[in-house]
UniProtKB/TrEMBL annotation:
Domain Alcohol dehydrogenase-like N-terminal, chain residue ranges per copy: 25-108
Gene3D superfamilies linked: Medium-chain alcohol dehydrogenases, catalytic domain
Region: Disordered, residue numbers: 1-20, 96-121
Organism: Streptomyces violaceus (Streptomyces venezuelae)
Protein name as annotated: Alcohol dehydrogenase catalytic domain-containing protein
């Protein structure tokens, strides 16, 4: 899959091919439709978080994401393939961020659009 990666920090992000992750027990695999760039990501790329958090390379930055569930791991309840979800990456290390086509997540929320209401309703 395609992902934004860093080979080192500080570094220059590049679009590369990485292995598609598989959901572990208690996780869902999300096909990422949108991710953001925030101050945390900029600090990661600039190397400001070295010594504060473990870095696993190639490092995929990104914290926030939205997308759809592609697969569910063992023991997952309340999520099904095709569910629209959003969330934040909460790993204790840097490297498995949201700037990729798919991401494993243990915590995300289902998006339920509001009921449509027409003018005559």
């Amino acid at each position: 899959m395609r992902a934004v990666t860093l080979a080192q920090v500080p570094g220059s992000p590049e679009a590369t091919e990485v292995e598609v992750p598989r959901p572990e027990a208690g996780e869902v695999l999300v096909k990422v439709a949108a991710s953001s760039v925030n101050g945390f990501d900029l600090g990661t790329v600039a190397g400001y978080l070295q010594g504060m958090m473990e870095h696993r390379f190639p490092l995929i930055p990104g914290k926030d994401f939205a997308g759809t569930v592609e697969a569910v791991g063992e023991g997952v309840e309340g999520f099904a393939v095709g569910d629209a979800v959003f969330g934040v990456v909460t790993k204790a290390h840097l490297g498995a961020g949201s700037m990729a086509q798919s991401r494993r997540r243990s915590r995300c929320h289902r998006h339920r659009p509001p009921a449509r209401r027409g003018l005559g309703a």
